[in-house]
Amino acid sequence: MTIYTSRGDTGETDLFSGERVAKTHPRVQACGAVDELNAILGGLLMYLGEEQQALTQEVARIQTELLQLGARLGTEPDTAMAQRLDAREIGIREEHVNALEVAIDRMEEALPPLTGFIVPRGDPAAVWAHLARTVCRRAERRAVAVAAEQAFEVAYLNRLSDYLFVLARTTNRLAGVDEAAWEG
User: Fold this and answer.
1) What does each C-alpha distance from 160 to 37, 78, 103, 144 come to in angstroms?
2) What is the dihedral of CA 101, 95, 28, 61, to 10 degrees?
3) Global pTM value
């Protein structure tokens, strides 16, 4: 099998559920933003050290969850593919959102209280986490356009951006890097 098919050369692509749509279709835009986020998390993993093994495993798990989320966003509801995903329990559920909240709470226990805005910089892992956070917010905005019936996907992305913000603060703390307070 070759990687190129030429099927996208005219500006159209296939949704996961098989429909042929323009590459500007809202579902394609949402999937693309989630894919970009997932790739950035791969970059973040390069900078999480061995002493941060638990965080590495957490981010790797999130990457898998983002693949599930992308499959759902790329699938029209009420299709055979949607039924197959349901049967295999592929998608984001309340337990995924709850797991992010537990992780956020765990990390925040070790952080000083936030008293203002911080400038997104510091340790390389923190910078990658901040970059991921901003792309996550875009993915959330794109998902809202297509996932009204998929409330957990939107809630997951909303919570994930919070997680990534706290992760950036955590990696700066672990690296001994002071946060840069915004002097606005």
Assistant:
1) 11, 27, 10, 15
2) 70
3) 0.93
